[in-house]
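Field: sequence (string)
Field: structure_tokens (string)

Example rows 1 and 2, in order.
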Amino acid sequence: MLNQKLQPQQAIPVIQSGGIIAYPTEAVYGLGCDPDNLAALNRLLILKDRPWQKGLIIVASDWEQLTDYVDFAKMTDEQMTEAKSKWPGPVTQVMPAKASVSSKLKGSFNTIAVRISAHSIVQQLCQSLGKPLVSTSANLAGEPPALSIEQIEHVFEHQLDAIILGELGNQNQPSRIIDVLTGQVLR
């Protein structure tokens, strides 16, 4: 693992083969992998020193990419309309998870945290991959998230499969997190 620096389209085979990447998001660098690859999820959690019980966020390029992960039948029409009104954008929403979703993604919850990003690199990665991407801040658990490639390389020295080149978005802090069912702001 060489922390190779790639353009977004070059990262797709890395992700499909179980690799972990760092990539720019709206506010900070994220770490990502295929949300359906259990070995990659385990490796990512170990790399971050993050307890699986906390769950992970997935980012998507559009609403349809969430259908394998979110149980929309457990949401009212009003909740669906409200959720859609916040996207694409820097808002993560906690939604009912389908029973088939790995506990490595949803943690010890029956929900999953999802975001449809407006960031061009996240959009490009998810569109090219044809599915969502795991998105957790590029840091060790409890530490500040990385804001530069240099910080990523310092923290994850040669432990990542690729770092995606590109600029961070213009947000000052990681995405706000809202529970769709209750409207409660969690972060």
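Row 2 begins here:
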Amino acid sequence: MSGRARPAPPNGTNVSSLKLTLVVAVALVDTDNRILLAQRPEGKQLAGLWEFPGGKVEPGERPEETLIRELHEELGITVKEACLAPLTFASHAYESFHLLMPLYICRRWEGFVQSLEGQALKWVKPQELRAYPMPPADEPLIPFLVDLLGA
């Protein structure tokens, strides 16, 4: 380990004192190679921003189990674990917590995607993702999806 001090984060927050929050997300990809985005509803943190579906990993839960649960609760679809493939992850320090977010990709599910929690949903081509304002942790994931699915 180097004897040099680690530089402080730009906002002056001590990163080591931030609580680590594990959230998992998925890029649902339809037969036209479009990706599903969900808009965060009013009253929630980062309301109005678009994000990949998913949610917070509960204690004792694996990320894949979280996605299966969240996709059923939020979108009314059934996803099998074998249809979830890890793609990349995001690591981002927010003001009051540090977010670690694995991103999976899924092309197969049962049922029809519908908004069960009042969130707006939109199917978006990979090259159009940047047109939708997203939380800071989601933005770095876009190039991976563009590379995978084409522009």
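free_text_note (row 2): Helices lie at 63-75, 142-149.
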